[in-house]
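Chain A, query sequence.
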Amino acid sequence: MKTTKLATAALGGMTIFASCAFAQDASQAGENAQGPENWTERESLFLASATEDISKKTGFAPSLNWTGEIWSNVSDGRDIHTIADSLFTLGFEQDLSALGNKKGLGRIGASAFYYAQTNGGELRGFDSSQGCFSNIVAGDMARVFEIYYANEFETNAGNIGFRIGQLAADEDFMGMDYSDVFLNSSFGAMPNVAPGQLFSQYNVATLGLVAYYSIENFDATLGIYNGNIGQDVSSNNGFDYNNVFDTVALWYQFGYNYEIGGLQGRAMVGGNYHSDPRKANFDAIDAGSFYSFYFGMQQTLVNDSDGNAVFGIYARVGIVPDSKASDNNFYADFGFNWFGPIPCRSGDIFAVGFSVIENERAAREEYAHYDGALEITYKCQITPAISLQPDFQIFVNQGGKDDSKAAYIAGARLEVNF
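Chain A, predicted structure.
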C-alpha cells in the first residue's frame, strides 16, 4: 500500500511538471504560429472555432462540456471503495439583437445535462451531514436545466438587468470567486441556507425571475421562485414541479467591490425566505416559514508585478435563526487560493478550504454536534479548455453520533470544454 501511494504521488508530480513543459511549448508554438489560433490556446477545443462565423452573423453561441471524476474512500486501506461519474452539459445562448438586427432585444438561453455514475454514487463508509464530496454527484439522469430570457439596460442611475424562465437560485446567489474552485458541494450552495427541498440548487431548476442592479462598485440581486421545486431523482427530466407558486421562495443579495492598497476585495450579504415549507413537494418542514441570512468576504493579499492576484482568502457564514425550520442553524466555510504556485503554471490554482456545520438537537439524535470537512485541491489548467484537478477531503465527525469518525476521500476531476 505504501508503494502504491508513493507511485501515485510520483505520477501526480510528473503529470503537473509534464503539463508545465507542454504549456511552455504550446505557448512558444502559439507565438511562432501564423494564421488560426493554436488549439492549445483556445478556451474551447473546437466548437467555438467551428461556429465562429455563424456566431458573428446570427449571435448564436453553443457550448458543450464534459466532466469526469473518480472518487475513493481511503479511510481503510484494506477496503477501498471507488466510484466514477461523468457529466455532459450542453447549452446555448442566442443574441436576439444580432438575429433581429436591432439593439435591446436581449437574449435567450438554455442548458441540459446527462449524468451517469457507478455503484449508485455512494462510497461505503461515508455518511456525513456536511455535504457531498462532489458538487455534481446525483442519480443517473438526462435533464433540462435552465431555460431563460435575459436583457440588460444601461441608465444614468446604473445598470439594470433581469432573467426570467426556469432558473436555479445558486446560479445567482451565495457564490464567491474564491470558493468556486472547490469540489465539495458545501462550498457552493450553503447546505443550511439552501436546503434541497425548498430552494433551487444545482441539478434542479424551477420557474423564477431574477433582477440585477449595479452602479460603480455596488450591486444588488433580487429573485422570486416557485417554492415547490422538483425532487432530484432520475425520473425528473427538469419539469417535475407541482402546485406552481402555491408557495414562493424569495432571495436577495447585496455586494460591494473595493480596493485597499491595490488589493481587490468583495463583501456580500444576503438571505432568503420561503413562505410555507409545509407545502414543499417532498421532505416538508413543519414550520410556518423558513428564512436565513448569509455573509461573505474575499480579499486578495498578494499581487504580482502586473497587479494580478497571487494569494487571497475568503470566508462565508450562513445562519438559520429558527431551529424548528432547520436541523442546521449555523454553517461556515473559509479558505485560501494560491494562483500560479508553480512558476510556469500561471493558470493553476492551489486551494485549501474548511467548512463546518452545526447539527441542532433534532439532528444530534443521528449526527454529532458539529460536522467538519477539509478540502485540499490543485486545479491544473492543462490548456484553457482542459483542466485536471486532484482533490483530497477529510470529513470530521461523520458516520453518525454513535459511530463518529473521520473519513478520507481522494479523487480527481477532468474537465473538457469542447
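The two ends are 37 Å apart (CA to CA). The mean pLDDT is 86.
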